[in-house]
Amino acid sequence: MVWQLILTGAIALLAGVALGFFIARKYMMDYLKKNPPINEQMLRMMMMQMGMKPSQKKINQMMGMMKKQMDNK
């Protein structure tokens, strides 16, 4: 009787942890897709700080590469 209670509790705990992990992962992936961590203005500023002269073509290329990398994950 007691071992059934312990076994049920352990299974419920593992299932809850697994379910919580996948829900949190899905939420974060959706959040990052809607709110990317970097935008064109930030990229332009970073390039200027590194001493580069950012052209719109180069910025578009880098944004495309970053978007492609996010889609692959």
TrEMBL record:
InterPro entries: UPF0154. The keyword Transmembrane applies. Its main location: membrane. GO terms for cellular component: plasma membrane. The chain crosses the membrane at residues 6-24. The keyword Transcription regulation does not apply. It is found in: Cell membrane; Membrane. It is a single-pass membrane protein. Keywords: Cell membrane, Membrane, Transmembrane, Transmembrane helix. Belongs to the UPF0154 family. HAMAP family: UPF0154. This is UPF0154 protein D4N35_008365.
